[in-house]
Amino acid sequence: MTSGFSLGAPTFYRTGSLVQLDVPIKNTGTARLRPEGTLTITTPDGQKVATSPIKMGSIYRGYETTVRASLPSQTPDGTYLITLGLKDSATGKTASIKDVQTTLAEPTKAAEPPPFVVDSISVNSNGHPVQYADVAATVTNNGQNIPTADVTLVVKRDGQEVEQYPLAQNQALPQGQTKIAQRYIPKDGWTSGTWTFQIVVSAVNVGSGTQTVLATVDAPGAIAIP
């Protein structure tokens, strides 16, 4: 029979109404162990935060478990030093860690997606000379269903607005992605200049007539007419 055990790196985590500190422990021998000792938590400047007596049940050969201490949920976030000394009285074996720096922090929350976003927009010319432009856009609604929306193409030539062309009117935008595709031909035809485009998506309150702009996005590139 051989005997011995080792301790791993301590870890804090919040669960329910408690803060818990876990220190891994492994029986590295073949003899059964029942370690006992004391766990101490201090601040980096030496102020004692908590002391916990440790008395473990049987740990059989090759088995891994944790030494666990529970603290109130009000325990402030910060850096602490962990000291743990354990001894198995039957075998006389000991293991310890001293002043191991461990950080308690609120779990990082995943960034919430924006409630509404235009994923992509393209305006591509067709024909030589240009006959029309294919306009395509994909929008994602991460919020509540929008029963009525208007999607407008703002058209400019050499920086001056030419017109606002309705790509979609009374368009429902449910949760998730919606694709919009339309052909565009200027009301006065394609005249010489540099044509640029912008998409504006607005939610429409049919009852009050209120329009709320949800997104305004410039289309990449331009159409140049000699």
Task: Give the helix/strand layout.
Elements: E1 5-7, E2 11-15, E3 18-27, E4 36-42, E5 48-55, E6 64-72, E7 78-87, E8 94-104, E9 116-126, E10 132-141, E11 146-157, E12 160-173, E13 176-184, E14 193-204, E15 211-218, E16 223-225
Antiparallel strand pairs: 1-3, 2-3, 3-6, 4-5, 4-7, 7-8, 9-10, 10-13, 11-12, 11-14, 14-15, 14-16
Account of the protein in words:
The structure is a single chain. The chain is mainly β and about 230 residues long. The protein folds into 2 domains: about 5-105, Immunoglobulins (Immunoglobulin-like, Sandwich); about 115-225, abc- transporter (atp binding component) like domain (Coagulation Factor XIII, Chain A, domain 1), CATH 2.70.50. It is built from no helices and 16 strands. It has strands at about 5, 10-15, 20-25, 35-40, 50-55, 65-70, 80-85, 95-105, 115-125, 130-140, 145-155, 160-175, 175-185, 195-205, 210-220, 225. Strands 11, 12, 14, 15 and 16 form a 5-stranded antiparallel beta sheet that branches. The model has no long low-confidence stretch (mean pLDDT about 95).
**Strand/helix succession:** EEEEEEEEEEEEEEEE
Tell me, what's the shape? rod-shaped
CATH arch. level architecture of the largest domain? Distorted Sandwich
The CATH H-level homologous superfamily of the largest domain: abc- transporter (atp binding component) like domain
Keywords:
mainly beta; Immunoglobulin-like; Coagulation Factor XIII, Chain A, domain 1; four-stranded antiparallel beta sheet; rod-shaped
